TrEMBL record:
The keyword Lyase applies. Keywords: 4Fe-4S, Carbohydrate metabolism, Gluconate utilization, Iron, Iron-sulfur, Lyase, Metal-binding. GO terms for molecular function: phosphogluconate dehydratase activity. Catalyzes the dehydration of 6-phospho-D-gluconate to 2-dehydro-3-deoxy-6-phospho-D-gluconate. SUPFAM superfamilies: IlvD/EDD N-terminal domain-like, LeuD/IlvD-like. Residues 404-594 form the Dihydroxy-acid/6-phosphogluconate dehydratase C-terminal domain. InterPro entries: 6-phosphgluc_deHydtase, Dihydro-acid_dehy_C, DiOHA_6PGluconate_deHydtase_CS, ILV_EDD_C, ILV_EDD_N, IlvD/EDD_N. Its cofactor is [4Fe-4S] cluster. It comes from the Bacteria. Belongs to the IlvD/Edd family. The gene is edd. Pathway: Carbohydrate metabolism; Entner-Doudoroff pathway. This is Phosphogluconate dehydratase. Binds 1 [4Fe-4S] cluster.
């Protein structure tokens, strides 16, 4: 192993020793005392079987696996619309191997692309906690010996895992649906957005461009949070190998889903190949997820999601670990917004089988983890193919395009491009893998806002036509649910294109599609409650230095000490935001995952 990867793994293991031991004791106790079908009363079982009379006789003996399907299906979210027929097909495939399957429950799946920049986005992060709770409700019936988790997008996969890991004695497989075929290239779409921001094109042209980009069922094709989720599930060994980026509606996609269903039936505790989720997700698997994130230039949202997933399994990983891993992990993929290719181009160039094989060989990924599919992670270095009607796997070949995928020996950059920034504003993260090197250091006067719509108005009024550090505060989890501020990317990009030095500093989030504008995000402590970002004033000289890892307001220390924090705006209502007040009030800080349910559970 790479010595830094090994040292960080040891650090995570040591820090997690007590909490991981408690978690392992929990899942062992759950396995031994699990209500399960043999222990449920006859009336209870009758209720459970009534909805699926065609499988009732197979279920009654209780000696074969009954698979609980937890689905995030809806047909408003393109990535999840593909799941419409999955449960009925999975029931057929389960019967082929003597098992049964039932839809245990559904979880909400909102589309950040729809809510981006609007009030609904303030529900987005806590939809993850809602999904975790919904997953727990689905699995609480005790009638399942394993579970299939159907989800892909931003908060859905982390939420499914957070809930499912509390039932970690059960074997589980995550089943993706794949990305939509390529439409209008992402770079062309971004160019139209910037033209619209400057008034150089109208709404009709912008809408046509967006529809040409997001044109069919499947995951959006840029490398944002949804597709980063799929990458992480591969390097953690929780998919069937190579399942992440196979397009929907293809025979290969169908056979991978069939294989996942039948594999799940083979890894239950009554057999000799028991692979419970709680043992698959261990410290090494969590480090693998972080390395994969860094090596491929993935979404900054996982600086929140990965710590939350880890906590649900009794594991503690923090931003310092991520910073150290980033320094030791080469960037070997260029996928939009960190390059011109989309995920279909990435898949064609070799995709996850290439990435995993190369990172195992270079000592950056732990090979020796328990996966759902093979003896270890090496199985994920092979790509799925169809031999007639039969699913098979072949060794990954060389990169098909070295502008998209390279080996760790000849990377695009020597590090993963995510860094911690610290200073008198607080502790923040920055992703620089898509930022030009001459913009890693920005020093400019601050313009302070408490709402992203105020930024857009100031841009339209010409008030930001200068070197500027845009500070957007009261965007943290306790203030308003920590919405993504991706709607700011086009106007800030326009200012940068005009030659100004521009940066964003916020206690909120940016989208997984953020890229070329330097952004210090997840600033902690957040403004609500007295975080020092609340002390910044218009005109203060702010220095963001990704080279040195600092984020400072350049005012004398004695003046800074006398400042009074800005007053928080009143809590917003409408769009159901008031219903999430309990979550906002209970949420912990960003570095721990910004979760209310984990904090409330004492995890």
């Amino acid at each position: 192993m790479n010595p830094t990867i090994s040292a960080v793994t040891d650090r995570v293991i040591e820090r997690s020793r007590a909490s991981r031991a408690a978690y392992l004791a929990l899942i062992e106790r759950e396995r031994e005392t699990w209500i399960g079908r043999p222990r449920l009363g006859c009336a209870n079982l009758a209720h459970a079987y009534a909805g699926t009379p065609e499988d009732r006789d197979a279920m009654k003996p209780g000696d074969a696996m009954n698979i609980g399907i937890v689905t995030a299906y809806n047909d408003m979210l393109s990535a999840h619309a593909v799941y419409y027929r999955y449960p009925e097909l999975m029931k057929v495939w389960a019967r082929e191997v003597g098992a049964t399957a039932q839809v245990a429950g559904g979880v909400p799946a909102m589309c950040d692309g729809v809510t981006q920049g609007y009030a609904g986005m303030e529900l987005s992060l806590f939809s993850r906690d809602t999904i975790a709770l919904s997953t727990a409700v689905a699995l609480s019936h005790g009638t399942f010996e394993g579970a299939a988790l159907l989800g892909i997008c931003d908060k859905i996969v982390p939420g499914l895992l957070m809930g499912a890991l509390r039932f970690g004695h059960l074997p589980m497989v995550l089943i993706p649906g794949g990305p939509m075929p390529s439409g209008l290239p992402n770079k062309a779409k971004a160019a139209v957005r910037e033209r619209y921001a400057t008034g150089d094109c109208g709404r009709e042209e912008l809408l046509e461009a967006e529809i040409a980009a997001y044109h069919s069922q499947g995951t959006c094709t840029f490398y944002g949070t949804a597709n980063t989720n799929q990458m992480m599930m591969e390097v953690m060994g929780l998919h069937m190998p190579g399942a992440a980026f196979v397009n929907p509606g293809t025979k290969l996609r169908q056979q991978l889903t069939r294989a996942a269903t039948q594999r799940l039936a083979a890894i239950g505790w009554r057999g000799d190949d028991y692979r419970p989720l709680g043992l698959c997700v261990d410290e090494k698997a969590i480090v693998n997820a972080a390395v994969g994130l860094l090596a491929t230039g993935g979404s900054t949202n996982h600086l929140l999601h990965l710590p939350a997933i880890a906590r649900a399994a009794g594991i503690v990983i923090d931003w310092e670990d991520m910073d150290r891993l980033s320094g030791a992990t080469p960037l070997i993929a260029r996928v939009y917004p960190n390059g011109s290719a989309d995920v279909n181009g990435f898949e064609a160039a070799g995709g996850m089988p290439f990435v995993i094989r190369e990172l195992i060989a270079s000592g950056h990924l732990h090979r020796d983890i328990m996966t759902v599919a093979g003896a270890d992670l090496a199985a994920y270095g092979e790509r799925p193919v169809l031999d007639g009607e039969t699913l098979a796997w072949q060794p990954a070949g060389p990169s098909g395009d070295d502008t998209i995928l390279r080996t760790p020996a000849a990377p695009f950059a020597p590090d993963g491009g995510m860094r911690i920034l610290t200073g008198n504003i607080g502790r923040a993260c920055i992703k620089v893998s898509a930022v030009e090197r001459d913009r890693w250091v920005i020093e400019a006067p601050a313009r302070v806002f408490a709402d992203q719509l105020e930024v857009l108005e100031a841009f339209r009024n010409g008030e930001l036509e200068r070197d500027v550090v845009v500070v957007v505060r009261f965007q943290g989890p306790r203030a308003n649910g920590m919405p993504e501020l991706h709607k700011l990317t086009p106007p800030l990009g326009v200012l940068q294109n005009r030659g100004f030095k521009v940066a964003l500093v916020t206690d909120g989030r940016m989208s997984g599609a953020s890229g070329k504008v330097p952004a210090a995000i997840h600033v902690s402590p957040e403004a609500l409650g007295g975080g020092p970002i609340g002390l910044v004033r218009d005109g203060d000289l702010v220095r963001l230095d990704a080279e040195a890892g600092t984020l400072e307001v350049l005012v004398p220390a004695d003046e800074w000490a006398l400042r009074v924090p800005a007053e928080a705006p009143p809590a917003a209502t409408g769009m159901g935001r008031e219903l999430f007040g309990l979550f906002r009030g209970a949420a912990d800080e960003a570095e721990k995952g910004a979760s209310a349910v984990l904090a409330g559970a004492g995890l």
